[in-house]
Amino acid sequence: MTAASTPKPAAELPCVLDLEASGFGRSSYPIEVGYVLPDGRARCTLIRPAAAWTHWDDSAEGVHGIARETLERCGRPAAEVAAMLNGDLAGRTVYCDGWAHDYAWLGALFEEAGMRPHFRLETVARLLDEAALSRLGEARRGALGELGLARHRASSDARALQIALGRLGAGSA
Predict the structure, then answer these.
(1) Is the dihedral of CA 9, 136, 36, 17 positive or negative?
(2) In 22-164, which ranges are E strands?
(3) Where are the domains of the chain?
(4) What is the pLDDT of residues 82-123, one digit of tens each?
(5) Are 7 and 86 in contact (CB under 8 A)?
(6) C-alpha–C-alpha distance, residues 153 and 151, integer Å
(7) Contact 140, 159 (CB under 8 A)
(8) CATH architecture entry for 8-167
């Protein structure tokens, strides 16, 4: 086994975040955030759409399985979610695999909350060389299968991504 494929101990794993959204267009917004800390503790919450967040893509709902009505009923306000993120992630570099979308969605969340993030969002590409990056999708699918996580949700995706990164030798930076 090479050093690049040796799994990292939990304390060295990167902090990973994933978002689900109302769609993928310019007017889409975050509807769920999940993250896993280096020690394996995870949090996930639904986000109640702000009044100005009206875009809804039924095909996105088909992927994540979260109805807008569920968000209205069970989601937390943007300010509450932003405060939770800042409280748990302050001072950290947090990694994601869909940086362009996730950065925009986090920006929408924090703008709606009238707050600034106290953490830095980075792409997982900063943690992996090209060879490891090319194996990331396969490693993540393997982790999802092993964990028995069939649903496409933010916390499940973040946990699988963190495990995959560990298996590919990516430690926290």
Answers:
(1) positive
(2) 30-36, 42-46, 93-96, 120-123
(3) 8-167
(4) 999 999 999 999 999 999 999 999 999 999 999 999 999 999
(5) no
(6) 6
(7) no
(8) 2-Layer Sandwich (3.30)
